[in-house]
């Protein structure tokens, strides 16, 4: 008979009929022996010492054999087991995929209990014994290793290089590191690899308008001034050097014009780097318009605050 969990889809059973005294009643008396697998119709197994089945599907199965003697004695026995042909895998789940920090927490979760070759729990006494591998400017912190669920879920921290301001690491599960109860060996899937990028560099923004420069006389002195009388020029653009987490609506609330109201308008964002707004509800025909950005409340994808930026000013009218 198969083990309680098996990766084999073909199976064989041998059986013998014994009474309570260890004798073989079917050797001297006529017996009816029938076999059944799961909910299939039973079949006659009289005169046979075993039976085989093939191409079993992944599921729990039950084999049953029953005996009726010519004297009216009845007996039956059954055995259940699981067919499992699916290899275990694991998903790597970093707490952040973009960061400006020096450490990142990582969980790895197996699709089912997966037992190490020595039958013991995984450990990270050293980087070489850890089931998680780090490639690139980072390193495992073995002392941070924790068992969350036996043979299923674990966590640990990974340090990111402090000798470079920007980079990325690749996290990958080791090969063939464990097996499930049916003997299927671990295989890596697309979720068994993760990338963490870090960037501790400064993030800048360009706050600008499409208003052209004009030469004006101010107190009889020629000066270059941004000026327009065209409503279609009343646009404010934000160009960040790195993607930001803030939404267009949030950025709109952080822009402070001294006149009018800013409303988002369409623009290709280039991965949440570029934004555009339209200045409306200008209640005067001539004014100096200034727009400020509360840049300290804008957060980059890696978690850095955007550097201060000068207001955008121009003459309208």
UniProtKB/TrEMBL annotation:
Protein name (database record): Uncharacterized protein
């Amino acid at each position: 008979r198969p083990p309680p969990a098996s990766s084999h889809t073909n199976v064989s059973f041998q059986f013998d009929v014994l009474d309570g005294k260890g004798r073989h009643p079917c050797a001297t008396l006529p017996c009816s022996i029938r076999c059944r697998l799961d909910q299939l119709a039973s079949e006659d197994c009289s005169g046979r010492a075993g039976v085989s089945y093939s191409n079993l599907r992944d599921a729990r199965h039950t084999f049953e054999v029953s005996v009726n003697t010519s004297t009216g004695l009845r007996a039956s026995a059954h055995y259940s087991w699981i067919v499992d042909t699916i290899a275990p895998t694991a998903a790597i789940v970093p707490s952040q995929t973009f960061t400006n920090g020096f450490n990142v927490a990582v969980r790895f979760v197996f699709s089912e209990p997966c037992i190490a070759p020595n039958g013991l729990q995984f450990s990270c006494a050293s980087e070489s014994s850890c089931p998680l591998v780090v490639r690139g400017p980072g390193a495992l912190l073995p002392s941070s290793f924790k068992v969350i669920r036996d043979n299923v879920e674990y966590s640990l921290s990974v340090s990111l290089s402090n000798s470079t301001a920007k980079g990325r690491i690749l996290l990958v599960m080791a090969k063939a590191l464990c097996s499930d109860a049916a003997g299927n060996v671990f295989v890596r899937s697309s979720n068994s690899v993760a990338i963490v990028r870090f960037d501790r560099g400064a993030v800048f923004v360009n706050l600008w308008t499409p208003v052209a420069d004009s030469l004006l006389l101010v107190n009889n002195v020629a000066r270059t001034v941004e000026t327009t009388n065209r409503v279609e020029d009343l646009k404010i653009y934000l160009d960040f050097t790195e993607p930001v987490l803030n939404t267009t609506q949030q950025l709109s609330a952080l822009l402070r014009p001294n006149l009018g109201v800013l409303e988002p308008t369409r623009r290709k964002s280039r991965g949440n780097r570029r934004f555009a707004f339209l200045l409306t509800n200008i209640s005067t025909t001539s004014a100096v318009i200034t727009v400020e950005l509360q840049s300290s409340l804008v957060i980059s994808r890696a978690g850095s605050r955007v550097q201060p930026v000068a207001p955008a000013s121009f003459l309208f009218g």
